[in-house]
Amino acid sequence: MSQRRVLQVFEQYQNARTQFVQMVAELATRPQNIETLQNAGVVSLLRPLLLDVVPTIQQTAALALGRLANYNDDLAEAIVKGDILPQLVYSMAEQNRFYKKASAFVLRAVGKHSPQLAQAVVDCGALDTLVICLEDFDPGVKEAVAGALKNIARHNAELSQAVVDAGAVPLLVLCIQEPEIALKGAAASALSEIAKHSPELAQTVVDAGAIAHLAQMILNPDANLKLSQLIVNTGGVAAMIDCIGSCKGNTRLPGIMMLGYVAAHSENLAMAVIISKGVPQLAQCLSEEPEHHIKAATAWALGQIGRHTPEHAKAVAVSNTLPVLLSLYMSADTSEDLQIKSKKAIKNVLQKCTYLPALEPLLYEAPPNILKHVVGQFSKVLPHDSKARQLFVTSGGLKKIQEIKAEPGSLLQEYINSINECYPEEIVRYYSPGYSEILLQRIENYQPSAK
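Below the sequence we write its predicted structure tokens.
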């Protein structure tokens, strides 16, 4: 047999292996094929191909395993029981970027299903290798690794702590500073999963400088709606809110600003901040932070959240921030910037708020330039809401309206007239100032008819 024929045998074998892994990887993309592949013992057939002499066969085998593991926990469990993970991890540090990405994909797919499978990824020594790969020159490798770390950390505090102990957090913060949007998002998502489990883990993320860099993603002049949506989708807003709650002072400032910028982009993004419990956290900052520049940033952020729709405005109003903002606006000790930001935030919320119980306290405290906006909201809602009209009487609101001294022909007077038109004339007269004296006078002057 000639040398050429001998080499041809090896060439045919290589072509067959290549075709096999490519076909399996392709078949694994369609759910209807998974059970058949599983029953055919595909995992055990792919395992030796991870050590193939041909790099493309290794990479495609890893890709196929990742797709299988991603499908369900049974296949992920089969990969763990087949001792494939140590093999992947061992080869990962030595191979090219394509193999690293494919291997990280497998680890990510296995780790996502349960704490037990994520722990299996940790137990095979994957964390140290993954952290090393976070320093790879290729952004795609770092993105894949961040995804794997996220899926490990997402389950519980112990797994998150393992990721922290492996030294991942500082490198993930560096990844946020990279120019690639997808890498930024993957790193932000991983940090979010780490921070969510406990105040201590959130503090670790804060101490690594994550807040400033996450916020910078939004505060950058080139930031846009797409980037803000990415931050929300990857859990960055929830992580930021947790971080704001675990720190004090100027460390909070970038996070507060980030929430405001995210909320400013659209009502959906503002609602994401509300759903993530951002408003109570900002309300706490507004009350407890002594520095006026931090209060001013918080007031601005609350205004950006509340300016979109009545639902957004109600979320801000029910957090009891309006009286606090009003107090800051009216205080002689408040900085000019804080006064301006507080006034603007109040107006933003008032112009949309239709939840009257939250507005009623302002009837008694607001100065004329704010009061007209408060009364204006009552004049919009009361004509169309009979229950609100009843409550407005019993709460003393209608009486307070009659006590307001407005310039004839002014906008405020028009609003008062609109409110009064919602009630019978005798009711309005009854609650008008001086009417009780008129009644007493009438009683005094009344002469009952003698029988």
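Residues 3-27 form the longest helix (25 residues).
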